[in-house]
Write a structure and sequence with these properties.
By secondary structure, the chain is α/β, with parallel strands linked by helices. It folds into 4 domains: 173 residues, Alpha-Beta Horseshoe (Leucine-rich repeat, LRR (right-handed beta-alpha superhelix)), CATH 3.80.10; 133 residues, Alpha-Beta Horseshoe (Leucine-rich repeat, LRR (right-handed beta-alpha superhelix)), CATH 3.80.10; 44 residues, no CATH class; 153 residues, Rossmann fold, CATH 3.40.50. Helices cover 30% and strands 14% of the residues. Helix 9 packs across helix 14 and helix 12 runs parallel beside helix 14.
């Protein structure tokens, strides 16, 4: 019997100068002393300056070894292979007290893992080893391949307390979160976007993820598409209303357009987005579902499996995305009804001209809604304000939110406010008329408080009269309560009965409000001296409330 055959436990703890017993460059099968001890069951190397887990321990040449204590050492990096003990003996490995921050693996190692799953994955639910850690792993793109392997199967080694520095268990971390930040030279995108690199299993080309959520963009940002980069664009929660094929990079892997204002996508754009293995998110957009978008809707239905969140994609009214069924019949019957339609339009327009102005305006609105009369260019481009907001001081918080939302973004609206744009000491009826006439729209925040205010009702009447004079929908009503619960006079009730209004709290409120307003302009007209102050500072809630209270005081 050799001398090593009688040793079952080898304790070398606290020999801090010992270091690794399998130094780099020396073949472990010829050097490792412990390999000569065939009866060894416990190997204790606590606080010995070790930096490495030796191959011989993992390959289990020591057939009886069942416990290795490597606690309180200098091990900082592990590879996925360090966790796989291939012997038949169950083994416990203690790595507590090591500052392990990296669990490294690479594409080639992952391919080897896939080709040898039976070697690395546990069989019959029984692991071959348990490895305990006490430190947090820095989970980024360098950890990605190890995470792929861990989530592919239960490995032979069970990692105890293996968490990312974010606190998420490594086995549960979303693989798309394992990224590395791109350098400023690599991330040539408009602020406040950020860029991260990640890798894919199926393609060696790295992916540059551009994250531009909540950036208030109104269009897809311009990218440097001359570089050989695969792009993943995250554009959720912006103000984008149009997406054209020319604005998208050819090497596009994913596009997230959730919660924007896109009413339609062109057929060519959809064909590009829905081919290959692209990941597309489209929910939260007010898609138009009528005959004008019928080809695009049918294409989206045919390739709904390519739209990750298709089950949440809806039409403008919140109904499930579905094309109308009668478009073909409408198209076939249209030539037959052409002459009748022309005659009917003539009769209706003639009648409108002979009727009161209010009915003439309403007929024009109806004809536009039916698509029989195209919307004429507005004759209000020279008006300095996009909208005048009318409200009761009791509703100042809602008015403040509307103003701040419309005055933000790349192309903000220019709002006319009591608190900012009225000349102190001016005659209020004259200021009301000037505000309405110098604004392309008037937004009336209608509530019981509004109805009890003399000046608010005066602003409503002035805006209503301006709409009748100009034959344009100048008045946008925002209802804060059910119209049946409001004590309205006959004039206001008749107005709401034949005009569209917006309900505060509607899930599509902001989309509908922007649709009711003209597009913001890149240039603005001069403000009349009789109406404006010297500057237009940003509106604040106290200032807005102060002016509203002043009007109410005069009213009372």
């Amino acid at each position: 019997m050799e001398w090593g055959d009688a040793i079952e436990e080898l304790n070398l703890n606290d020999n801090v100068q010992l270091g690794d017993v399998c130094p780099e460059g020396i073949a472990t099968n010829e050097y490792l002393l412990t390999r000569m001890i065939s009866t060894l069951t416990t190997l204790s190397l606590r606080n010995t300056g070790a930096k490495t887990i030796c191959h011989d321990w993992r390959e289990m040449h020591l057939s009886n070894l069942n416990r290795i204590d490597l606690s309180d050492n200098l091990i900082t990096n592990l590879t996925f292979l360090d966790l796989n003990f291939t012997g038949n003996q169950f083994i416990y490995v203690n790595l507590m007290g090591n500052n392990v921050t990296q669990l490294a693996f690479d594409r080639e190692g992952y391919k080897h893992f896939l080709s040898n799953r039976e070697e690395y994955c546990e069989s019959e639910g029984q692991p071959r080893s348990i490895v305990t850690l006490s430190s947090k792993l820095h989970c980024d793109c360098n950890t990605q391949w190890a995470a792929y392997a861990l989530q592919e199967c239960s490995p032979n080694s069970h990692l105890i307390d293996a968490h990312c520095d974010s606190g998420t268990p490594l086995s549960n971390v979303p693989l798309d979160d394992l990224v590395c930040a791109a350098s400023p030279e690599e991330c040539v995108v408009p602020p406040p976007c950020r860029c991260d690199w990640l890798e894919r299993i199926e393609d060696p080309a790295r992916v540059l993820r551009v994250s531009c959520e909540h950036a208030e963009f109104t269009s897809v940002p311009v990218l440097n598409t001359t570089t050989n980069v695969v792009w993943d664009l995250r554009l959720a929660h912006n103000n984008i209303s149009e997406v054209h094929l020319a604005n998208l990079p050819p090497n596009l892997l994913g596009l997230d357009l959730r919660y924007n204002y896109v009413p339609r996508l062109g057929v060519d754009t959809l064909k590009f987005l829905l081919k290959d293995e692209r990941r597309v998110h489209l929910s939260g957009n007010p898609f138009i579902c009528d005959c004008t978008t019928e080809p695009a809707l049918r294409l989206m239905l045919s390739y709904k499996s390519k739209i990750v969140d298709f089950h949440n994609v809806t039409c403008q009214d919140g109904s499930p995305l579905f094309p109308p069924n009668d478009c073909e019949s409408k198209e076939n019957i249209a030539p037959l009804l052409g002459g009748l339609t022309a005659l009917l339009m003539t009769v209706v327009l003639l009648g409108a001209c002979l009727a009161r102005p209010v009915w003439r305006a309403q007929v024009m609105v109806i004809l536009r809604g039916l698509g029989w009369v195209s919307r004429l260019a507005e004759h209000s481009e020279d008006r300095p304000y996009d909208a005048f907001i009318s409200f009761s001081h009791h509703d100042v918080l809602i008015a403040e939110e509307i103003v701040q939302r419309l005055e933000s973004g790349e192309r903000p609206y220019r709002m006319c406010l009591h608190s900012r744009d009225w000349v102190p000491g001016g005659w209020i009826p004259e200021l009301i008329a000037a505000s309405v006439q110098n604004s392309r729209r008037t937004i009336a925040v209608l509530s019981e408080n509004f109805l009890q205010s003399t000046w608010a009702r005066a602003e409503f009447r002035e805006a209503h009269a301006e709409a009748i004079r100009s034959l344009e929908p100048r008045l946008v009503v925002v209802l804060l309560a059910d119209p049946k619960s409001l004590e309205m006079d006959d004039e206001l009730r008749r107005y709401l009965a034949v005009n569209t209004y917006l309900r505060w709290g509607d899930p599509w409120f902001w989309q509908k409000l922007r649709a009711a307003l003209p597009a913001p302009r890149t240039t603005t007209s001069a403000v009349p001296a009789s109406l404006a102050l010297q500057s237009l500072p940003p509106v604040s809630a106290p200032l807005l409330a102060q002016q509203a209270h002043a009007l109410e005081a005069i009213d009372n």
